[in-house]
Amino acid sequence: MTAGYSADQVRAAEAPLLTSGVPLMARAAAGLAAAIREVRPERVLLLVGSGDNGGDALFAGVELANDGIPVQILRTGDRVHEAGLARALESGAVEIETLPDRLDGVDGTVADDTVVVDGMLGIGAGAGTPLRGRSRAVVRAILALPQRPRVVAVDIPSGVNPDDGSVADAVQLPADLTVTFGAVKAGLLRGRGAELAGHIRLIEIGLDLTGVTPLIET
Predict the structure, then answer these.
(1) Which domain holds residue 131?
(2) Using CA atoms, how far apart are residues 113 and 125, in angstroms rounded to an integer?
(3) pLDDT tens-digit profile of 53-86?
(4) Is 54 within any annotated ligand binding site?
(5) Best CA proximity match to 76, nearest among 63, 95, 92
(6) This prediction's pTM
(7) What does the entry list as the binding residues for K(+) (predicted)?
(8) Is 94 helix (H, G, I), strand (E, B) or coil?
(9) Is residue 214 one of the residues assigned to a domain?
(10) By CB count within 10 A, which of 18, 67, 134, 175 is most buried?
(11) For position 70, which CATH number holds?
(12) Is 56 annotated as a binding residue?
């Protein structure tokens, strides 16, 4: 039985930990990096949005770059987690401006050893609305590739409503693996979210949901 919680329930459980200074992003990033290592990437492309999911992706990128894995960073939002970006660049990650035509750098197809990390949008603003701007352009470019890369979603695939799993349109990046933090979001278990999430990996970061009734159990 898997319990799925709402975005509000997750935020309420996070609040006392954030107030007391518990490093939730560090815990999430460590779990994300460990999950990415398990799929044995030879190279990683981070799609980094403005929110905390982008920060999680960047700090995971620090660990992967320190492992010697080539890491590229493509910003998709107006802002970026500055400390995460600085640490990632110091670790050897490279920031790029556009999606490479050849993600494997060889023959125009995407090698099996390429992993794209979707850290564009999370459970906050923008969830359940159409992808816009660079996020939309990048997803459309990836969907048009003759062979799609493996995709790891950070917490939830970008654009999926965290409560009901709905999406606004067909421009969505399906994940092979969704690494979600603290609690499984209900939107990963129903609607289009269940189809886009791929395999779900829960990383415990210390949330206490005792006595909280989940939105869904499957």
Answers:
(1) 3-97+110-208
(2) 32
(3) 999 999 999 999 999 999 999 999 889 999 999 9
(4) yes
(5) 95
(6) 0.93
(7) 53, 118, 158
(8) strand
(9) no
(10) 175
(11) 3.40.50.10260
(12) yes
